[in-house]
Design goal:
With 357 residues, the chain is of the alpha/beta class. Helices cover 42% and strands 10% of the residues. Helix 6 packs parallel to helix 7 and helix 7 packs parallel to helix 8.
């Protein structure tokens, strides 16, 4: 979830989108087949957010009250129904219990992470196929590989969400890169697809992104990997476009780990970073929001629209019905291209992957 990263600027920017784009009540036509990025949460996470707010006053400034509410699988299905969407991907926020700013004893952190992941998996199992669950793991914690191994054997666990901003990743740290690469290799062996939020507070340079692609992603083999927020953390800036270009170059050269690589474009098109006071405007103000979106779509076309999937990050912005209606207006694609995007589903939702794994 976008609000759970270490980069306060990015977190604030993403959540302010709910204010910038008011609900219209209109539906996107056609509707996506799947929302690839949704969140529910148990009372454990709800209480944890309250603790985080006390520890870091102001960090949740501007956030909708929905963030502080328990949300069940039935709530997610209700929102899917409102939007005319068949399937949703639940990304557990269990990784948040490893957030270093509010430390827990290792055994308590592991207990809470397991419980939050169980909540998401059980809600998905009760949905009659409408929801699939990815468990949340901080790959730098002592329980990471145990948690991966455990869920790889449990019915209803379809993959792993890594929020590497929240987990404190610095791709300039060789030890962290080595640990993350080992986790990708273990996930590939366990056949547990990954949804990865890469960008956080650490430098997001071309060299660091190349390190991720060449050293970490390469360990995924043919495992489905979904990069969240279109390669960045929402909105579009020069670093996001550069990241997208580097992913495109890797896909074109068929680099290891890219066979089943897709990017979800949650919170990319609707967010104009230049209008947010909390985001540095150096470089952003040189283009209008429409120009940034046009540049992003040009990169999408160059890579191929089949590599992009639709996602809302509900409830961080707006409910899926309103979110996708706004996205259809904001994203400068043709009607045919929008239809293609709506039909796209990540490899881990396709029958051939499910049957083969």
């Amino acid at each position: 979830m976008i609000w759970a990263r270490q980069a306060r600027t990015a977190r604030r920017a993403m959540l302010t989108a709910a204010i910038l784009f008011s609900s219209t009540g209109a539906l996107a036509e056609p509707a996506p087949r799947a929302d690839h990025h949704m969140h529910i949460q148990s009372a454990l996470i709800t209480d944890w957010l309250q603790d985080m707010q006390k520890a870091m006053p102001g960090v949740f400034e501007g956030i909708s009250g929905d963030i502080f509410k328990v949300r069940m699988g039935g709530d997610a299905v209700h929102e899917l129904d409102r939007a005319g969407i068949h399937q949703g991907v639940l990304l557990s926020a269990g990784y948040m219990f490893g957030f270093s700013a509010v430390p827990l004893a290792p055994e308590e952190m592991a207990r809470r992470m397991r419980a939050e992941n169980r909540f998401n998996v059980d809600q998905a199992l009760a949905s009659n196929g409408r929801l699939v669950a990815f468990v949340g793991i901080n790959p730098f914690l002592g329980n990471a590989l145990d948690e991966l191994e455990y869920w790889s054997r449990q019915p209803g666990a379809s993959g792993v969400k890594l929020h590497l901003g929240n987990s404190g990743l610095d791709l300039g740290n060789p030890d962290q890169v080595k640990t993350l690469a080992a986790f990708f290799a273990a996930a590939s062996k366990a056949r547990m697809p990954l949804v990865v939020h890469l960008r956080g507070a650490a430098p997001f340079s071309n060299a660091n992104i190349a390190t991720f692609i060449d050293t970490v992603l390469s360990e995924a083999g043919d495992l489905p990997v979904q990069i969240a927020h279109g390669g960045g953390f929402g909105g579009i800036d020069a670093a996001t476009l550069e990241a997208l270009r580097l992913y495109g170059d890797a896909i074109e050269r068929k680099a290891p780990g890219t066979a089943n690589l897709v990017l979800d474009i949650s919170a990319v098109a609707q967010l104009d970073l230049s209008k947010l006071a909390s985001v540095p405007t150096e470089g952003i103000e040189t283009r209008t929001a429409d120009e940034w979106r046009a540049a992003y779509v040009a990169q999408m076309r160059k890579i191929g629209l089949d590599r992009f999937v639709l996602a809302s990050d509900w409830p961080a912005l707006t409910p899926p019905a309103e979110y996708f209606a706004a996205e259809r207006k904001a994203l400068p694609v043709t009607d045919a291209e929008w239809t293609t995007l709506c039909e796209n589903v990540a490899p881990y939702l396709r029958a051939e992957w499910i049957k083969g794994n």
